[in-house]
Amino acid sequence: MSFDLKLLGEKLIHCRQRLQFELREVAIGTGLGLDRIEKIEAGLLEPTGDEILMLADFYKEDYKFFISNQQKSGSEQTDVLYRKFGDSFSKEDRWAIQEFLYLCECEQNVIDFLSTPKKEFVFQKKGTYFKEHGIQAATSLRSFLGYSDNELLQNIFEDFRKIGIHIFRRKLVNSSISGLFVLHPNAGKCILVNYNEDIYRQNFTLAHETAHSIFDTEEQLNVSFTNEKGDLREIRANTFASHFLIPTNAILQLNVTQWSQEIIYKVAKQLKTNITPLLIRLKELNLIEDEEYKLYSQLYLNEKEKNDFELDGLTDRIKENKKKLIERGLSTYYVRECHNAYINGFISRKRLAEMLLTNEFELPNILNLFNLKLIYEH
Asked: What average pLDDT score do residues 179-190 get?
């Protein structure tokens, strides 16, 4: 094996510092000796092939990045996040984002292996009115996905995956971060939703970040904070999200002459949205007055009344187990697509375990939750 040892060392140092790891943590995580890691980082020692693989697995990077002259990996885009937002991202959150980008790249690899079809949604802005852009794009995308102008959503996660967006949910320590969008150089459009948020807020965040993936790709990334206000791009994204989740005709067709607490509860649950976004739409449509808005703003849906699009119809036991997997980013879609790639011989059992963030021993337990099996040769 022959490659630039100095460049390799610089890449490893960059990976470690971006994730705020100490050398001893890398040694523990990889099983490599501390002295050996120091020498590899200094460009004084050529690692073995197995050591390269162990370091790549530890940092959740493609091993080819380390042994090539490629200057940057996809995850290095996050450097901009950390420079711009300083202490907003804790060490734990940096690792969650690193695994998120790893999962996005794995998912794209699987899609390429399986030649999974996707619909390309292209929206051309008209005029300079940002809110109108959001309304037009929401209406256009709903139609593109086959929804009528008054139809309720079936599964917003599936909908946005159909247009080629990689969507994962992870718990972030910083509760003020609702989500982020990254235009990954290899995987394309990627969205992370903070799984610590209220489930209906997660739906709104996903739609909000999808707006950024439609309008703001030139920025290559976006972080949305729960208390963000005033920015025209954020206003446009909020407008898109509210009109996608709560289409005008779905409200008007109800023919409600007098809105009440009971009706608002019922409609919010049907739309899988929180009370406030619904009230904002009702106010925009002049269906409620200021006083009614203030009155109903005190209402909230109990968490037990809210259903997750990706967990609907499951027994309580399976739902709880799958919740734990979703926290780690493992959606049903992702697990099934990875397993499909394994069944069709594109990846090995070991690689399948790596892509599911586990080991070969625990792999059958994860697959059982999805009624999937390993291939055992006789």
From this structure: 93
Residue 2 has pLDDT above 70, yes or no: no
Closest to 320 measured CA to CA, from 268, 257, 369 = 369
Residue 378: the pLDDT is: 38
Pick the CATH number of 86-245 from 2.40.30.20, 1.10.10.2910, 3.20.20.80, 3.30.70.790: 1.10.10.2910
The CATH homologous superfamily of the domain defined by 5-71: lambda repressor-like DNA-binding domains (1.10.260.40)
Q: Read off the pLDDT of residues 313-343 as tens digits, 9 standing for 90 and up.
A: 888 888 888 988 998 899 999 999 999 999 9
Query: 252 and 285 in contact (C-beta within 8 Å)?
Result: yes
Sign of the C-alpha dihedral computed for residues 43, 48, 53 and 57 taken in this order: negative
Instruction: Read off the pLDDT of residues 148-168 as tens digits, 9 standing for 90 and up.
Output: 999 999 999 999 999 999 999
Cβ contacts of 80 within 8 Å, gap of 6 or more: 220, 221
Structure confidence at residue 377 as a pLDDT band (50, 70, 90): low
Domain extent listing, the chain: 5-71, 86-245, 249-308, 316-368
The mean pLDDT value for 113-118 works out to 89
Does position 79 have pLDDT exceeding 80, yes or no?
Answer: yes
Segment 25-47, tens digit of pLDDT: 999 999 999 999 999 999 999 99
| β-bridge pairing 188-194 and 166-170 | parallel
